[in-house]
Amino acid sequence: MKISELKDLINQKLNIVSVISNFISLSKKGNNYIGLCPFHEDKNASLTTNETKKIYKCFSCGEAGGIVEFIQKFKKISFMEALKIAATMANIDESEFSFLNKEFKQNFTYDQIKIYDLLDFTNTFYKTNYLKSELARNYAKERKIDSPQIRQRFDIGFADNKTKEYLIENDYQLNELKNAGIINENFNSIINNRLTFGIRNQDGKIVAFSGRDLTNNSSAKYVNSTENLVFKKSSILYNYHNVKDEIFNKKEVYIVEGFMDVIAFYKAGIENVIAIMGVELSSAHINLLKGVKINLFLDNDQAGKIATYKLIKKLANHNNVVSVIKNTYNKDADEILLSQGKEVLIKMLNENKVSAIDFAFNSLFEDFNLDKQKDFNNINEFCRKIDDTFGLAPPSIKNYLTSLIKEKLNFDYKFKASFTPRSFSENKPVYKPKINEKNLLIKLKAEKRNELLIMLLSNPDMINYFFDDSLKW
């Protein structure tokens, strides 16, 4: 059976109105059914579904398709996954669509297929090694991640110093190992004598590994296999493949820093958690989390605070509701779970949750010491930082922030940037004008002067701070 034939069979067996009604509310209007489009912020019931033609279309954002396409876009999964779900809903015997596993591979190049197969084989090797390594088993037992359920779910294994030799013995070539990110340019294994975590993409396929040092002698606590044809670190949300349905059902996700934090949440009974693995959220990541409430719980060190602030800035330009969990223990989630227990971790997640906007505002207010020292320079830099972070945010967020500034600093602040749906784009080309080096210093001084004038003219109430001799400069 071909994919087109399977789609036809699904359309014969399923009613598109019934299928879509499982996800959103539809009401009959003439010969069609209408409802709020789930693919954009819709308030006008722009989505129209035609029962006879078995199609849907949003006359606002343009999204359109059939049963399989709706499931794919709504659940944010691959076309093949959506096809399998639709076939199951239609009570089509699994033997009729088992060919999809083969078709799934045909979406990739031959080199990509070889990498997937090699990484899957390597993952099995690492898991077998774990059972043989006393060092790995003792560490996992100490961190309470040694149960078969946890090891299986998070692909925990152990890389000894014989990975390259073992793979070559099993007929893999050096160039294949290099292409898969297993060995480096010098043909040495990248991960040696480390506990391994398999990294899977959103379809659940192994694309890379991360190795955790067990000796405390290495300068790098974690080492990752290198990027390859199937792995770009910036495109991966760790654990997303395990919990995408949970996130979809709860419309909420916790974002943490690393693997052990994800496992800690899982042990505490919280499954809808993903890790960013030290990278910034991309537009692709944010698209996966569209319409989902986001709770940030990153490390409480300086790097974690900077990462939290960057995420807030990134997410401010989107319509997600974002909160920050204030970590009062100066430990990561795994350490809190081990030292304080499950109840303390859950209590902190529930009781220490604050709006990301309030968190950013109060953190900046504290950083600039504005509780004690309201001098003009501090206020000016504080406002510049607020504008830099939230200048492209929706009007509702800007209005809230201007009210906070009025309350705390007693003047009416005006944002310089204006918000439009197309204001923010990661891929905008950046124009870099040529600058005459001789005039650079003059230009910079002029820019500073003009910037100060603009700030004062935009916010007349700040003039009082500017001419107040009692304030420090």
Features:
single chain; 473 residues; DNA Primase, Chain A; Dna Topoisomerase Vi A Subunit, Chain: A, domain 2; five-stranded mixed β-sheet; globular
Layout of SSEs?
Elements: H1 3-13, H2 16-21, E1 27-29, E2 32-35, E3 47-50, E4 55-58, E5 64-65, H3 67-75, H4 79-89, H5 100-105, H6 110-132, H7 134-142, H8 148-153, E6 156-159, H9 163-169, H10 174-179, E7 194-200, E8 206-213, E9 222-224, H11 240-250, E10 252-256, H12 259-267, E11 273-275, H13 283-288, E12 293-296, H14 302-315, E13 322-325, H15 333-340, H16 342-351, E14 353-355, H17 356-367, H18 376-390, H19 395-409, H20 440-458, H21 463-466
Parallel strand pairs: 10-11, 10-12, 12-13
Antiparallel strand pairs: 1-2, 2-3, 3-4, 4-5, 6-7, 7-8, 8-9, 13-14
Question: What is the overall silhouette?
Answer: globular
Mean pLDDT: 86
List the strand order in the largest sheet. Answer: 1-2-3-4-5
CATH superfamily of the largest domain: DNA primase, catalytic core, N-terminal domain
**Given the helix and strand composition, which structural class is it?**
alpha+beta
- The total count of strands amounts to 14
C-alpha-based Rg, rounded: 27 Å
